[in-house]
């Protein structure tokens, strides 16, 4: 029996022309909501495995041009509308929106996305641990 690839690793197959093809999900089209698939080709299965792993890693990284345009708060709004609303249950929407509006935006929302550091995130975690809930 063939070994299955884990979620997020894409799929590999041999094409009728003899080349190997690796396909992966590159995200969703924000306008239509349809899944965008991309592929890599190679002469050998091993070559495609390496290319596929690299392509998936590149597609999950934050684009430098987009990082310069957005603040953390703006990016969270974009993420919520284009990714979270599609992927999670409607009952989770309110919870996610609350986290964004009550915790993320007031604390680190004005920081440019490209300038966000692990220190800023640690400060946010410390504040949330020490102060807890937000009074509404």
Kindly describe this structure.
52% of the residues lie in helices and 15% in strands. The protein has a three-stranded antiparallel β-sheet with strand order 1-2-3. The protein has two domains: 50 residues, no CATH class; 68 residues, DNA polymerase, domain 1 (Orthogonal Bundle), CATH 1.10.150. Strand 2 and strand 3 form a beta hairpin. The protein is α+β, with helices and mostly antiparallel strands and 136 residues long. It starts with 10 loop residues before the first strand and ends in a 5-residue tail after the last helix. It is built from five helices and three strands. Helix 3 runs antiparallel to helix 4 and helix 4 crosses helix 5. The longest helix has 19 residues. It is elongated and about 65 Å long.
């Amino acid at each position: 029996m063939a070994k299955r690839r884990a979620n997020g690793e894409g799929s590999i197959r041999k094409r009728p022309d003899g080349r190997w093809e690796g396909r992966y999900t590159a995200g969703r089209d924000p306008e239509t909501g349809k899944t965008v698939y991309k592929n890599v080709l190679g002469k050998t299965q091993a070559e495609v495995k390496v290319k596929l792993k690299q392509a998936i890693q590149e597609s999950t990284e934050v684009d430098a041009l987009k990082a310069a345009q957005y603040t953390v708060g703006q990016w969270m709004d974009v993420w919520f509308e284009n990714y979270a609303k599609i992927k999670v249950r409607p009952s989770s929407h309110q919870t996610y929106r609350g986290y964004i509006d009550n915790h993320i935006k007031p604390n680190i929302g004005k920081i440019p996305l490209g300038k966000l550091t692990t220190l800023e995130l640690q400060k946010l975690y410390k504040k949330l641990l020490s102060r807890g809930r937000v009074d509404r």
